[in-house]
Amino acid sequence: MRRISKLTRVAVGVASLALAATACGGTSSDSGDSGGKDDLGVAIAYDIGGKGDQSFNDAAFAGLEKAKKEFGFKTADVEPTEGETDADKEQRLASLAKQGYNPVIGIGFAYGPAMEAVAAKYPDTTFGIVDSVVEGENVASLVFAEEQASYLAGVAAAKATKSNTVGFVGGVDIPLIHKFQAGYEQGVKDTNAKVKVVSQYLTQTAEEGGFSSPDKGKAAAEGQIEKGADVIYQAAGLSGQGVIEAAAKAKVWAIGVDSDQYNQEALAGYKDYILTSALKDVGGAVYTLTKSVQDGKPLTGTQVFDLKVNGVGLSDSNPKMAEIPGLKEAVDKAKTGITDGTIKVNTE
């Protein structure tokens, strides 16, 4: 079985998988038709917030479901526990590998230390980690150009605002979320330098609930709306649902993240106020890694999912986008600039 260990760009279908994300809760394992070790397929271990966040984790589940449907094998998806340690994560990943799942994918950077330890103990299993780089001959690091999708979100926000004040709500004050903020702010400023961006982080650490507290997101959005923001972009996981709720209540625009949140069933009551979503095809990455294992050529090393290969993007599901003068043209121009290299997007 040949290993491919290098920095590569992997093409995926951002729109199709983002639209496939579902709003199911709980922990599940589909037993399939047979129980032999060689018959087991992909397993994912969720990040904070778990399945049903209508965003990051649900995007990963969409990729698992696509692989299951196409390849017809057993799958498993396992929820995190509150206040868990790296040892807990290590035990979870090791259990999935021991059962025979391949690949085993950790959804979120928090799995980094655990995956580094476990991957070395199971050299015949391919591991994947989203949003982090872990060294290992049998590890694929699935990373994204979040700043590029966020830039497009900033362009849309600058075109949609009437108050010339827009907001950004980040779940946790960490480098990963700084990429979302940096791209968004640059997109806003490049489109209309007169627009002010009000930014806020919900917590300093994930343990404080920045990615899993809709009430915190709602309060932050309400504060930004009081300051005049009429478009708010959130990169806050499950907490982002509170941002969207607050925006809808105030009848201002929200911009979703990771999945196409306009099409999420659990957010249907707010969809008229979800202008667009900055897409991050976590599901596509899960599927791509799974297919590589299925094909006998498992990907390893750092795999980059950017705008050029449709690993990130901006949704256009809300027909009201087309009613905003110049928005589509500005977004299309920005896409071209990013992909041809004339626009360099900040990451911090």
Please provide a brief summary of the model:
This protein is of the alpha/beta class and 348 residues long. Helix content is 37%, strand content 22%.
| Name of the CATH homologous superfamily of the largest domain | Response regulator
Number of helices: 10
CATH architectural arrangement of the largest domain: 3-Layer(aba) Sandwich
Reported by name, the CATH topology of the largest domain is: Rossmann fold
Which CATH class of the largest domain? Alpha Beta
For the biggest sheet, the summary is:
9 strands, mixed
Reading the helices and strands in chain order gives EEHEEHEHEHEEHEHEHEHEEHEEH
* Beta-strand content estimate: 15-25%
Number of domain units = 2
Q: How would you state the average pLDDT, rounded?
A: 90
Radius of gyration: 19 Å
User: Which geometry do the CA atoms define?
Assistant: globular
Which regions contain 5 or more consecutive residues with pLDDT less than 50? 1-6, 14-37
Number of strands: 15
Q: Class by helix and strand content? A: alpha/beta
Structural commentary:
This protein is α/β, with parallel strands linked by helices. It folds into 2 domains: 171 residues, Rossmann fold, CATH 3.40.50.2300; 165 residues, Response regulator (Rossmann fold), CATH 3.40.50. The protein is built from 10 helices and 15 strands. The strands form 2 sheets. Strands 1, 2, 3, 4, 5, 6, 7, 8 and 14 form a 9-stranded mixed β-sheet that branches. Strands 10-9-11-12-13-15 form a 6-stranded mixed β-sheet, with helices on both faces. Helix 8 links the parallel strand 11 and strand 12. Helix 5 packs antiparallel against helix 10. The longest helix has 17 residues. The N and C termini lie far apart (39 Å). 57% of the residues are buried.
